[in-house]
Amino acid sequence: MAAEDFEVRSPLVETGFHKADIRVLAAHLGLDNAQKPQSACLSSRVPYGTAIDEGMLRQIERAESVLLTLGFSQFRVRHHGDVARLEIVPEEFEAAVLRRDAIVERVKACGYRFVALDLTGFRSGSMNEGVVQTHTP
After folding, report:
1. What is the pLDDT of residues 82-113, one digit of tens each?
2. In sequence order, what are the residues at sequence separation of 6 or more whose Cβ sits closer than 8 angstroms to the Cβ of residue 86?
3. Residue 23 main-chain phi, psi, to 5 deg
4. 3-55 pLDDT tens trace
5. Helix or strand (DSSP H, E) at 86
6. DSSP string computed for 79-129
7. Angle at 126 between CA 124 and CA 129, to 5 degrees
8. To the nearest 10°, the Cα dihedral for 85, 53, 39, 89?
């Protein structure tokens, strides 16, 4: 809606390009990011109504870098003030428990006081739960 309100143009969409087309072209061009998993804007890690600033986004980015360097494949760090709520795929829960000390130490070093593992696991759009109505068939 905001894009429409501010007349934002999307040249790739306007020319009929889709995500799959962009990946094929990136692979053809030999770009390293051709198979990189999609990732939503860092602001999507913050609850609705929370004021967002550059420092907060850097904090989230640093905490997610911790998970990446520790070998996790798909994850989000959800920012709840001084709590980092980690969402990882359930198949990697055991790895998280085995690396618990490193995760806690390094995520706290990013500025969080508490580190929590969300036992529901990674799910795209989890910050919308309870806020946005979803359609179920």
Report:
1. 999 999 999 999 999 999 999 999 999 999 99
2. 67, 75, 76, 77, 78, 96, 103, 107, 115, 116, 117, 118
3. -65, -40
4. 788 888 888 888 888 888 888 888 899 888 777 766 778 998 999 889 999 99
5. strand 83-88
6. EETTEEEEEE-GGGHHHHHHTHHHHHHHHHTTT-SEEEE-TT---TTGGGT
7. 135
8. 0
